[in-house]
Design a protein that fits this description.
The structure is a single chain. By secondary structure, the protein is mainly β. The protein has one domain. The chain is elongated and about 40 Å long. Strands 1-2-3 form a three-stranded antiparallel beta sheet, with no helix packed on it. It has no helices and three strands. InterPro entries: DUF669 (IPR007731).
Amino acid sequence: VVKYDQTTSQNGNPRIIVDYEIRSDVAQPYQGQQIRFDNFVVTDNSMWRL
């Protein structure tokens, strides 16, 4: 995890936006590149993702 931000979704639910970086210490395709974001909306039905 490179960065995260806590915001509110359009429906008013808490949301966490996460940016990742692919490990740069292991030789692999896309080494060191960032995955720009993943959105986690916090609701009862989505808790399995967290």
